[in-house]
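thought: user wants a sequence for this fold. calling inverse folding tool.
action: design(structure=
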């Protein structure tokens, strides 16, 4: 069974992409076939974050296999979109020892719904989730509330 780590945030401009670069470097340094999967993207043919991260991975797979569904798919039917993203993840993960799953970017879906979709996908994958909570310019209480 593949090891999966799901990186997500509950809001935009969290620094998630920068953290993804560091986590991917660490996972690759540990060895094996390490891939990056994006469960929800704007466009399955062009995802800037995947285009940045894939060349840094040790994945033998084509980057086109590393995407799940689009935001439009989520809008049309969340349950079906989650199912498709999970199926595509398992097909992709079969070629890897470890997969860093980088959650969606809060584009086009209201924030509570988007985080819920990410959490649901992570649960279906059985992946540990790393939640990025930006705390800059926030008090401790505000940071704790954001994390909750």
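)
observation: tool returned 148 residues.
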């Amino acid at each position: 069974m593949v090891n999966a780590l799901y990186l997500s945030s509950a809001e935009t401009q969290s620094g998630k992409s920068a953290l993804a670069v560091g986590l991917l470097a660490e996972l690759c340094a540990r060895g094996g076939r390490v891939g990056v999967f994006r469960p929800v993207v704007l466009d399955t043919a062009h995802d800037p974050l995947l285009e940045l991260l894939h060349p840094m991975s040790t994945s033998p797979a084509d980057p086109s296999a590393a995407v799940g569904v689009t935001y439009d798919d989520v809008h049309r039917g969340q349950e079906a979109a989650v199912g498709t993203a999970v199926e595509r993840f398992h097909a992709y993960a079969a070629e890897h020892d470890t997969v860093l799953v980088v959650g969606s970017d809060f584009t086009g879906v209201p924030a509570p719904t988007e985080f819920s979709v990410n959490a649901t996908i992570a649960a279906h994958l059985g992946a540990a989730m790393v939640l990025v909570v930006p705390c800059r310019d926030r008090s401790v209480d505000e940071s704790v509330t954001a994390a909750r």
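thought: summarizing for user.
answer: Here is the designed sequence. Helices lie at 16-29, 48-53, 71-76, 78-93, 111-125, 140-147.
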